[in-house]
Amino acid sequence: MDLVPALEEPLKKVVGPATAKVMAEHLDLHTVGDLLHHYPRRYAERGELTRLADLPLDEHVTVVAQVASARILKFNGGRGQRLEVTITDGSGQVQLVFFGRGIHKPHKDLLPGTRAMFAGKVSVFNRKMQLAHPAYELLRAEGDEVGEAVGSWAGAQLPIYPATAKLESWKIAKSVDMVLPSAQEAQDPLPPALRDGRGLIPLTEALLKIHRPHSKADIEAARDRLKWDEAFVLQVALARRRYADAQLPAVARRPRSGGLLDAFDAKLPFTLTEGQEKVSKEIFDDLATEHPMHRLLQGEVGSGKTMVALRAMLAVVDAGGQAAMLAPTEVLAQQHHRSIVEMMGELAEGGMLGGAEHATKVTLLTGSMGAAARRQALLDLVTGEAGIVIGTHALIEDKVQFHDLGLVVVDEQHRFGVEQRDALRGKGKQPPHLLVMTATPIPRTVAMTVFGDLETSVLDQLPAGRSPIASHVVPAEDKPHFLARAWERVREEVENGHQAYVVCPRIGDDADEAADPKKAKKAEKKAEEEATAEKRPPLAVVEVAEQLARGPLSGLTVEVLHGRMQPDDKDAVMRRFAAGETQVLVATTVIEVGVNVPNATAMVIMDADRFGVSQLHQLRGRVGRGSAPGLCLLVTDMPEASPARGRLGAVASTLDGFELSRIDLEQRREGDVLGQAQSGVRSSLRMLAVIEDEEIIAAAREEAVTVVSDDPELERLPALRTALDALLDAEREQYLDKG
User: Fold this and answer.
1) For residue 210, is it within any domain?
2) Which of 47, 263, 566, 666 is the most exposed place for a label (fewest CB within 10 A)?
3) Helix, strand or coil, per DSSP, at residue 444
4) What ranges in 54-167 are assigned the alpha helix state H?
5) pLDDT tens digit string along 487-523?
6) What are the residues whose beta carbons fall under 8 Å from the beta carbon of 441, sequence distance 6 or more?
């Protein structure tokens, strides 16, 4: 993992400027060390062939196969000719096509029985899989020194590298040969005791074996070792953050008996679930310490996270501090403000006639407030009149001052820039306690990797009275009568006194996009792509609402809600829907989190295949929040055998968010999941898979805690310290710090 001078040498000095330029632009590889850590994606055995039957369409692939036949065909009245080569692996066949003057060399090279590596983009022509003008490298028989073979790869395992159309796998392999001697100079970041105790091979040996293995055992030993490097160095970075945070001072906020919290608990019309009690205790224990709490509260949609967060905020107010709740959107901030004021009743009327004895003021602060309301809100914060403030990023502007900020609750933190969260944390006299909430279930390993600087609490129990949600896939293309039935079901729910959501992926009012040349160009390009892919553009809120109001839902009150509306208009629409005046709300994903209308029982998600698994689960959580059962219909045009339909089937088959998050993670690249928390940490997860390698991540976390508590500055482990610097420059470390 470590970069020493030899490994820091620019690639252009070793592989030449042309190859180095392609590597930098297309693979983000700049130094000898970068290339050494560009590991093979898989291996092809010399004696075996890869499965051609499984090739993915429209992707650049590298395959090892044998030529079955080759023939030259004339076309265009004999003026043009093409070479068609059929390659096989036993599982299937793929056609290679070469045109014009480019056919002479492959015609000479690719004789029946010849084995070679081929690289190109997979397409379909006349219902057959083909590679047009693929690059190829002949594989000579062992011991055959004729021509330029891949004979320098002595082992039976041929490495297949993540490649690009500009640079084939075997060219990368030849460049790796040039830098491989430098692997001897890589310093080993793992402490010797850890390496020996876990039976791991040294780093230099691992780098040689991953690139030039002689056997499957070599690959296995190298992967085990390199996964540990990635897991351990990252966990050390996180453990050091936790250690540094634990040294910070904070004001202990102990709930006092007979205060606001007790008065609130006494008026609750229900008892807290066992999970809410347990998580509340963990939070109160953290708040009582003189170091800032850093806790992640993750819970299923509707598991009562807001209730837990509110009780923590009341405890802080009781202890003389203020609490701020940061929401990702104005709609959600207004929703939280309404529901918290409702839950607290007269306890939220501090300083007002009729307010209870222990009451405090609950203030809303958003960017779109009028000047007078904003002035009053700012005054309430700086004087301490408002014990609780709820807002958007407007809360972290320089001019917003708190009297004594004791707790920050961040809702759905993955929607915030890290700088925003950090700015709010800097507003207390001492660092405030921090509670991060998410309704996106996160597998344990991701929590340990992405949110590794936070302790984790999980709410996996739904409060009593929550209703089950039935989910079904509606194949609109195959069975149009199913979609007609979906609208009948919506009408039935409304006739029974309930309400419904219809969710669309796009807003559809493109007028303002056209006014912005950049947006217009982008929209035009997208439309072209969709046309060439023979896909229609995604359905839009504005158009769908009009069609429903005129057609299947005529006579019902239908309104639209989307992110481009004025904040006051959005709030007015949500108020009407919450009050039951609007029967059907056609919206974008602006309703994805936090929107709570217990009377809404049905949701139809249009073009459901365009949403991710976790997003569909979030959206579905908006129904079934009252005593009546919920219904979620996932409408799609995708064919039954497609991966997209499989994904929708998974969502329809379970309400377990943790199970769905695993499915989601397995279907996406690690980087997508780790997102901004891993921003800039390009080299951190090349070998490690956060789902499959749960045991390694958990063990690395334990080892990292031991190492850091024993030697926080890593003075006795200089190679590990250097590896950490290579992984995390100052900016990257801040990303991990802020999560």
Assistant:
1) no
2) 47
3) helix
4) 104-109
5) 999 999 999 999 999 999 888 755 444 334 455 445 4
6) 298, 300, 614, 617, 657, 658, 660, 661
Q: CB within 8 A of 183, min separation 6: which ones?
A: 36, 204, 207, 208
Angle, alpha carbons 42-48-52 (nearest 5°):
70
pLDDT band for 640, please (50, 70, 90 cuts).
confident
Q: Could you tell me if residue 294 is inside a domain?
A: no
Q: How far apart are CA 70 and CA 112, in angstroms?
A: 7
Separation of alpha carbons 291 and 193, rounded Å: 32
pLDDT band at 717 (very low <50, low <70, confident <90, very high): very high
Domain ranges, residue 569: 469-654
- The DSSP 8-state label assigned to residue 500 in this structure reads E
Instruction: Report d(CA 124, CA 120) in Å as an integer.
Output: 13
Q: What is the bridge-based pairing of β-strands 294-299 and 433-438?
A: parallel
Place of tokens 């429903």: 548
Q: Decide: pTM greater than 0.70.
A: no
Query: Is residue 548 within 8 Å of residue 487, measured between CB atoms?
Result: yes
Residues 431 and 474 in one domain: no
Distance of CA 286 to CAs 281, 292, 315, 462, 576, Å? 9, 8, 12, 24, 40
- Cβ neighbors of 359 (< 8 A, separation 6 or more) are 260, 346, 347, 348, 349, 350, 351, 352
Helices vs strands, H then E, count in the chain: 28, 21
Q: In terms of residues, how long is the chain?
A: 739
Measured from the Cβ of residue 735, the count of other Cβ atoms closer than 10 Å reads 17
Whole-Å CA distances, 585 to 369, 482, 570, 625, 631: 24, 21, 12, 16, 15
Q: Which residue has the tokens 């079901």?
A: 489
Measured between alpha carbons, how far is 640 from 653 in angstroms, rounded to an integer? 15
- pLDDT band, residue 676 (cuts 50/70/90): very low
Mean local confidence (pLDDT), 267-287 = 91
654, 681, 708 - which closes a domain? 654
481 contact partners, CB below 8 Å, separation of at least 6: none
Token readout for 176 is 């790796």
CA distance 735 to 732: 5
**Confidence (pLDDT) at 149:** 40
Residue pointed to by tokens 């992110």:
563
Block residue for tokens 């405030």: 432
End-of-domain residue from the set 638, 654, 670: 654
Contact, 685 vs 231, CB < 8 A? no
Which residues touch 156 (CB under 8 Å, ≥6 apart)?
A: 45, 46, 47, 214, 215
Is residue 12 classed as helix, strand or coil in its secondary structure? helix
Say if residue 325 is in the same domain as residue 421.
Answer: yes
Q: What is the DSSP letter of 540?
A: B
CA distance 229 to 201: 11
- Torsion of the alpha carbons at 401, 407, 409 and 414, rounded to the nearest 10: 80
Q: What is the CATH number of the domain that holds 636?
A: 3.40.50.300
DSSP 135: E
Q: Residue 108: what are its φ and ψ, rounded to 5°? A: -75, -40
Closest by CA to 488, choosing from 554, 541, 543, 547, is 554
pLDDT of residue 361: 92
Greatest pairwise CA separation for the chain in angstroms: 97
Strand order in the sheet with 386-391: 361-365, 386-391, 322-326, 405-411, 433-438, 294-299, 455-459
CB 164 within 8 A of CB 60: yes
